[in-house]
Design goal:
The structure is a homodimer of 203-residue chains.
Chain A lengths: L23 H15 L6 H8 L3 H7 L5 H4 L2 H14 L6 H11 L5 H16 L1 H26 L6 H23 L5 H13 L4
Helix pairs in contact in A: 1-2, 2-3, 5-8, 6-10, 7-8, 7-9, 8-9, 9-10
Chain B binds a DNA duplex (30 and 30 nucleotides) through helix 3.
DNA sequence: CATATTAGTGCACTCGATGCCAGAATGGGA
DNA sequence: TCCCATTCTGGCATCGAGTGCACTAATATG
């Protein structure tokens, strides 16, 4: 995907200190392979570090927790989402804007889609990851609530924006998990359908 | 509330072995007081055990994890919810049934309401509890999805029931957290309003 | 070559959680 | 009364995640 912190290895390019021995992306790759093979719980941080050729302690310089590996660069995705909300046309209903934004931030090539499936299946299946994901979802909700609040002329903490944001999260999660579980489904179609149900008042 | 496993202490009543030294409810009381005073993270299981006059190891016989204390008897509440769905009138829209059931399963006396507020504030605020709660919410969603599936004539794992269930969860959570944060709000009113927004398609 | 900068790593430690097993308390029956 | 089955307690050892600290290694610049 993209190689993150600094120059991976190679000729100098004007940055001072020692070059990192690996990247977040590579660590994630290694770890996800182990998770898929042995399970999340059965894989220790030592295993990941060994497989990646770094020390256990170093792993925690790249990711704060074992679970964070599964979430990759979610912060960046949140920022993209925020940007899309900023540029959203005024006329469009909130739910439609969110649906469009979610669809847009999840356009991947075929290879990446497979990795996404693995990630989603893990986060929806492994209890420890279900748990950890909630914190990420909260951040996602905050972004949506901020947008909904602007539209509703309310404070992001009020009931209106909060309800809209969390309901949108629910629809998106339903779409993602159903899609991840069935190889033949289309992600966009799932998202469209879920948000259609939401816009119809769950009737 | 209710004193759980076996006779608390006192005269025999026909049960064989040694009598438990405490109860789940008492442990929860002790723990919640410590959480409220020192914070969830800063309170160790040793602290709770000491305060309750039992050994650390014994604590884990009453609750599987430190976080479980905050959730008390959620299993039982899920069962009550399931029962209500079973008895729900056929004509009522899904969302209304869920709203009514949630309101009904959360009728408490004034004293208990305070404890509920503490619990909700903790679960919505402390990251470790936000995380742990997700597992409980998943169970909640399963119950709602099961009901929605019956109504929609679908499988509980399909997109329709999943979307409805998760959206309902979102509405309920929004109501609970907004309520917990504001002393003057009324829980029933919050729930009604949140589900009204949901039924209106978040518009 | 000296120095600042940045990354890697070993060590010790805390804390949650678990398995195992011995011991304490209790009721029932020979 | 004495032993036994039952049930709960709790000590001990162990694992694994996560953290703070101090030291080492690599690299660019002057």
């Amino acid at each position: 995907m993209h190689d993150e912190p600094g120059r991976p290895v190679g000729p100098a390019d004007g940055v001072r200190g020692r070059r990192p021995r690996t990247t977040r992306a590579r660590l994630a790759e290694v770890a996800l392979r182990l998770f898929a093979r042995d399970g999340f719980e059965a894989t220790t941080v030592d295993d990941i570090a060994d497989a990646a050729g770094i020390a256990r302690r170093t792993f925690f310089r790249y990711y704060a927790t074992k679970a964070d590996v599964v979430w990759g660069e979610f912060d960046a995705e949140l920022e993209r989402l925020r940007e899309r909300f900023r540029r959203a046309p005024e006329g469009l209903p909130i739910v439609d804007v969110v649906r469009t934004a979610v669809v847009a931030t999840n356009r991947f090539g075929a290879g990446e889609l497979d990795q996404l499936r693995t990630r989603i299946e893990l986060t929806a299946t492994v209890p420890a990851l279900v748990a950890h994901s909630a914190v990420q979802y909260q951040a996602w909700c905050d972004v949506v609530a901020e947008f909904a609040a602007r539209r509703l002329g309310a404070d992001p903490g009020e009931l209106g924006p909060q309800t809209v944001a969390r309901a949108c999260l629910g629809a998106a999660l339903a779409a993602f998990t159903v899609w991840a579980a069935r190889p033949d489904e289309d992600l966009d179609r799932c998202l469209d359908e879920a948000f259609r149900i939401l816009a119809a008042g769950c009737a």
